[in-house]
Amino acid sequence: MPGFELENFIPYLLNRAAEKSSREFQAVYKQEYGMLRTEWRIVFHLGRYGEMTAREICSRGALHKTKVSRAVSALEEKRFLARKRSETDRREEYLSLTRQGKSVFRKLENSAREYQERFAGNFTQDEFRILTNALKKLTE
After folding, report:
1. Where does residue 128 rank: exposed (0-12), middle (13-18), buried (19+ CB within 10 A)?
2. Strand arrangement, sheet containing 81-85
3. 52 has which bridge partners?
4. CA distance 32 to 10
5. How many angstroms separate the CA atoms of 22 and 128, rounded?
6. Contact 61/52 with Cβ under 8 angstroms?
7. pTM (two decimals)
8. N or C: less crowded end of the chain, CB within 10 Å?
9. Do residues 43 and 75 lie in contact, with contact meaning Cβ atoms separated by under 8 Å?
10. No. of H helices and E strands in the chain?
């Protein structure tokens, strides 16, 4: 009976693939805008879905609230997002992209599209469709 092979262990493979692809795309948002991973994810959520609370971003993006809190502060310093206090709950803030943040989002969205096309080039169309569907199934 063969021994356990870490190289074929699904969580290990998924983690390595995620880290590799994240690092490759990181070069774009870190170099161009000085953003960290959580920051660009917040920009993408706000750009895609509009005004949201930090709690909604945490839930939708499976992000830790401490990381989101730090990233929101950093994005506010960079003038990429604005906060607006809730009129009904003073503890809650609504986050939205500023004009500058929307511009950054559009540019990053194009970069993400280009990265996705290059990444997909490593696979046949069927392989890429299967990979995408399998990953979506895993996240449900």
Report:
1. middle
2. 52-53, 93-97, 81-85
3. 95
4. 33
5. 17
6. no
7. 0.85
8. N
9. yes
10. 6, 3
